Structure to design on (225 residues):
């Protein structure tokens, strides 16, 4: 939605497949009135992809939601909730932990690829299979982004040469988009990622301190936690 107020929107990730859009709405409503909610769905099976966006009426409610709803457990899984604008900025900067997955079977879609790499914690919504613009058919390769190089290194080590739907896939760091022929994962990117990790830790500590200040605590409906 191009007219969505990003300042009043939170990103909600790590959503269990059992959770419905209505359930997420009821949970987030405790932080304040909601304008819109969107959980992107797989175009084939119409099941949500484990993340979504909730737009509140005010920026303050969105900030409050990111403080009190982050790490709330739903069906045993801790939700990841933060301001969507901040999350978008972080993704734009990126860590550089992006992998190229080649030799994919034509039947492999985003859901299959995500399932194959799910144990390595890919960034929600980052799993993409490249398709022909006219036919929509897979070109036989895709990309997956990670929050850190520990996860991407582990995925590269363990998944390169593995079989997915009858074909042995190749895994390598993706080429950078600057056209210079360099791949992600170099020493400079790793140093920047390490610094970003320290900054994120400091931000999380500040948010935890703010969350401890008495405010309008939500009352969780039955079944949450």
């Amino acid at each position: 939605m191009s007219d969505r107020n990003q300042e009043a929107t939170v990103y909600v990730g790590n959503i269990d497949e059992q959770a419905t859009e209505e359930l997420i709405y009821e949970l987030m409503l405790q932080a304040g009135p909601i304008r819109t909610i969107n959980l992107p769905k797989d175009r084939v099976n119409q099941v949500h992809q484990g993340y979504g966006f909730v737009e509140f009426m005010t920026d303050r409610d969105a900030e409050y939601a990111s403080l009190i709803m982050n790490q709330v457990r739903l069906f045993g899984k801790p939700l990841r909730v933060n301001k969507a604008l901040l999350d978008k900025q972080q993704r734009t900067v990126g860590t550089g932990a992006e992998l190229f997955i080649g030799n994919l079977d034509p039947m492999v879609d985003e859901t299959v690829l995500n399932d194959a790499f799910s144990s390595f914690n890919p960034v929600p919504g980052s799993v993409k299979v490249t398709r022909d613009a006219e036919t929509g058919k897979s070109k036989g390769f895709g990309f997956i982004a990670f929050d850190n190089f520990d996860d991407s290194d582990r995925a590269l080590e363990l998944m390169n040469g593995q079989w997915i739907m009858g074909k042995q896939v190749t895994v390598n760091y993706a080429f950078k988009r600057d056209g210079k022929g360099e791949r992600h994962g170099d020493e400079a990117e790793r140093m920047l990622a390490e610094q970003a990790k320290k900054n994120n830790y400091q931000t999380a500590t500040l948010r935890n301190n703010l969350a401890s200040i008495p405010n309008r605590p939500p009352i969780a409906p039955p079944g949450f936690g």
Remarks:
- The two ends are 31 Å apart (CA to CA).
- Residues 86-93, 201-207, 213-223 have pLDDT under 50 and may be disordered.
